[in-house]
Amino acid sequence: QVVFALNQTLLQQESLRAGSFQIPYTTEDLIKHYNCGDLSSIIFNHDTSQVPNFINATLLAHERITAQEIDSYFRQELIYKRNERMGRRVRDLLEEYPDKSFFFAFGAGHFMGNNTVIDVLRREGYEVEHTPAGQAI
Known about the structure:
Layout: H1 2-18, H2 27-35, H3 61-96, H4 117-123
Cofactor: Mn(2+); Co(2+)
GO cellular component, one term: plasma membrane
GO biological process, one term: Wnt signaling pathway
């Protein structure tokens, strides 16, 4: 799986450099969607591969299975489990210091799809509100 992932990453980078492949969204698109609280957009779709362009129509059947296994591993280990740990740490701080005020900031990746840090905190009984860009806290 590691060799497959490295080869696919190199092929993608070579395609980018040659101009035969373009990323479907820009950094500005990511910032706009994040600032607007539009995290359910196609950019942050749950079904989007966590390893860009590993799962595509040009893969052979056995390569597609490998790509899906890698994507599942990354989603579980790097997103879901990490969000669970981060959410528990937030909860622990809030419970340990109930009279304190906190500000927590997370990267956009922690709000993608299902099982986000927000989902973890809501399951713990906390109310979480989005603060749009430019709104006073």
